[in-house]
Design brief:
Layout lengths: L1 H12 L3 H33 L16 H14 L4 H4 L1
Helix pairs in contact: 1-2, 2-3
Length: 88
């Protein structure tokens, strides 16, 4: 997501508030879902979906279930933050 954050700042600095707002809303949608909805297990699942190391949760937190993991990946895809915009 570093690229999306950088692009958000660039667009705002250029006066493209509508584009910056769209990027911010996509980031916030994902942030809310992962932090409030799925918690730490969801964050680790999102990292793994991005090809990064998420690792296991420490007890007492369980690993995220397959259904919830699929939902996290769908959210990443829906926000456009799973592909090239996120990391290039």
């Amino acid at each position: 997501m570093p690229c999306a954050c950088h692009r958000l700042m660039d667009e705002f600095a250029r006066g493209n508030a509508a584009v910056a707002r769209d990027i911010q809303h996509r980031i916030l949608l994902l942030n809310h879902a992962v932090t409030k909805g799925f918690g730490i297990p969801g964050l680790k699942a999102a990292l793994e979906a991005l090809g990064l190391f998420g690792g296991n949760c420490r007890p007492p937190l369980p690993r995220i279930g397959l259904e919830a993991r699929t939902e996290v990946v769908k959210l990443l895809e829906a926000t456009g933050l799973l592909g090239g915009e996120a990391w290039i």
